[in-house]
Amino acid sequence: MVDQSFIRDVRCFVGCGVMRTIGDYKNMRIVVVGAARQGMALSRYLVEHGANVVLNDRRSVDQLSHALDALADLSKRDNSLQWVLGGHPQSLLDQADLVCVSGGVPLTLPLLQEAQAKNIPLSNDSQIFLEVAPCKVVGITGSAGKTTTTSLFYQITQEVDDPISHGFRKAWIGGNIGSPLIKDVDQMSSDDLAIMELSSFQLEIMRKSPQVAIVLNLSPNHLDRHGTMDAYRSAKAHILGYQNKNDLAILGRDDPGAWGMRSSVQGRLVSFGKSVMKYEQEGTFLSGDSIYWEGKENHARRTAENSLGRSVRVISQKDIPLRGEHNLQNVLAASAIAMAIDFPPEAVSSAIKKFKNIPHRLEFIRSWGGADWYNDSIATAPERSIAAIKSFDEPIVLLAGGRDKDLPWDDFVDLVRSRVDHLILFGEAAEKIHNSFPFSGQNHLTIERCASLQDAVKLASEIIEPGDVVLLSPGGTSFDEFTDFEERGNYFTKWVKEIP
Question: Are residues 296 and 268 in the same domain?
Fold first, then answer.
């Protein structure tokens, strides 16, 4: 575990013997660890703002040829960017003013532990973006649903006819989704709106919160990285921890983990969920077949018996194109964000109706053999697979496995036994998942094991029957066979489309 007391609040830096204000990186020596998209975007930003950057990665020159080419112009600029590849030597910390950590790099890395011991501040691209962003930032986190909710809210901003009258000129989207926002921050103005997906890896060392912070849900995830549920919860809580009384927090009230954070809210509290809220609370809820918004503007025009007569109807549930209970929660969340910052309900409804599933999230691939095939490669935890399974009433052929994250499989096993007809396991976690099932009493369920995902696709094509759903929803990460969940989903899609 990382000693959090060593991770300092980077409100000012000690560099070259003088105190520095936020955003002043001139002549600072900054080590950026991790040369993926976050590290590359941050390195460019820092060099362009006068810093001397050392970009460090354990991978070799050959493995990072694309990154070297992309930043070649910076390397030629008075040695403002230097590369140290193939390992993490502690000599990198000599005269370092700041160490910036990419999201995929664990804080248990010896280099980072030594930096903490030397009281060298740690930061990352998201922290620096929040420090220098000239506009309001909407930050969204949760164990599941971050990308869908972030994308849906961004779609809502695109449906607003007159953005200026609703408080923004242009909306930007990034963070853990798409491109790091630090790449675009110099193009932003004070009347823009930045929408930021934040993972626990990013939040872990952050000491600044967005003005609008959303926690969708909280369930066991990434325990292989954080070690305990308490540490994971603590990382997520940073999205709220540095807000003030003028800020806005939006929490999922149907989720005990998210709703349990309401005591940390320092400003305005808005919630979302299926149940009707208590009198004088603000948020979205489900009544009958529709989603409604109840805000302070409604409270003055209604009585204490909690009548719906003054609430604002946002959209009918039958007009929501996304499958599943979890996606209903995502729609409730995105609607709450939009309504809380005074967007017109017509824009919210229009965006939801047009919204299509994001790749790798219950993405329909094709009908073949009388069955519908779905790619839910984003499901890297059992909890996410459970949500996917609950989205279907049809008989299910489930492909699950990958690499385990030290998460419990008990609830997954119980649901699979009652809802899945055929379970095909693949990858490193196949044996562990298989051993989680009792040896008797499976009723209709059959369980098969394959060495690879491609073998699992082939087996599924041989056992399906008309009316089935074939669902890739692994419950484990992709790192045993693929570089990430997107590559896994892309290969699954390719193999499914190639079935003769």
Answer: yes
